[in-house]
């Protein structure tokens, strides 16, 4: 993590228009490199400065994922089904 954005294989992924700025929260940067095991996912919230996500509890096994998002209700200008 650098400035609230994931760094994947050395490249900072900054094309994330849907996230809130990370601010000065301690989780905005991760100084250590981690490796995501096969069949695991690194989950991150869109409110990076206040999200409790894989930065704190680690990668999530695929078997723990029980569904996928199918609708958005916030913000109001992006309500919809996908």
Short description:
Helix content is about 5%, strand content about 15%. It contains one helix and six strands.
Q: Keywords for this structure?
A:
mainly beta; 5% helix; 82 residues; globular; 15% strand; two-stranded antiparallel ribbon; 6 strands
Structure description:
By secondary structure, the chain is mostly beta strands. It has one domain (1-82). It contains one helix and six strands. The chain has one helix at 54-57, and strands at 7-8, 11-12, 40-41, 60-61, 71-72, 80-81. A two-stranded antiparallel ribbon has the order 1-2. A hairpin with a 2-residue loop joins strand 1 and strand 2 (11-12). The longest helix is centred in the last third of the chain and has 4 residues, at 54-57.
What is the structural class? mainly beta
Radius of gyration over all CA atoms, rounded: 14 Å
Q: What fraction strand? A: 5-15%
The overall pLDDT average reads 85
Total strands: 6
Calculate the terminal CA-CA distance, rounded to whole Å. 28 Å
State the strand order across the main sheet.
1-2
Report the order of strands and helices: EEEHEEE
The biggest sheet amounts to:
2 strands, antiparallel
The helical percent reads under 10%
Gross geometry: globular
Tally of domains: 1
Which stretches are low in confidence, meaning pLDDT under 50 for 5 or more residues running? none
The tally of helices reads: 1
